Amino acid sequence: FENLHWSRYDSAYRRAFEQDLFATVSKYPEIDFILKGHPSSDWAKKLWRELEGTANAQLVGAKPGTLETAPTPALLDAVDAVITTPSTVAMDAAFMNRPVAVAAYDLDLSFYEPLVLLRSADDWSSFIDRARAPEYLERAEQFLSAHTVGLAQAARVFECVDNLSC
């Protein structure tokens, strides 16, 4: 998942993300990669031009009427793990009980801790190699616990309001 159109990302970040994505897709031909861009972004289409013809990568929305046009929740339900740029997709993936990694590079993304923060191609590989490790699901649960009040925890809402600490 990407939202590289956002002004938060400089050219070095975008370049690192692209290079690491291409290297990862190439390194793991046995894994199918799905690239979904932000609806307001053309970056995914640009990235797709580089990946077109790659047997293990597909762009969501490239072929109308196929799984590739599936909404984000359906995609998250269908995948084993998620790598995303900083966005609400990280929260959505954690809610769907998926291992999540966020492409961080030189950005301060302490908000996303304890999720895996990717700063290099080696980090991408490490995440993929260990994506099924229970530790990554635990990190997603910790992230949710730190950043959500809970859907059925009225007492927690009152505690947060009283303490103004949420």
What is the topology?
Layout: H1 11-27, E1 33-35, H2 43-51, E2 57-59, H3 72-78, E3 82-84, H4 89-95, E4 100-103, E5 116-118, H5 121-130, H6 134-147, H7 154-163
Helix pairs in contact: 4-6
What does this molecule look like?
The strands form 2 sheets. The chain has a 3-stranded parallel β-sheet, sandwiched between helices. Strands 1-2 form a two-stranded parallel ribbon. The protein has one domain (11-163): Rossmann fold. It is built from 7 helices and 5 strands. Helix 4 (89-95) crosses helix 6. The radius of gyration is 17 Å and the shape is globular. It has helices at 11-27, 43-51, 72-78, 89-95, 121-130, 134-147, 154-163; strands at 33-35, 57-59, 82-84, 100-103, 116-118. It has 166 residues and is mainly α.
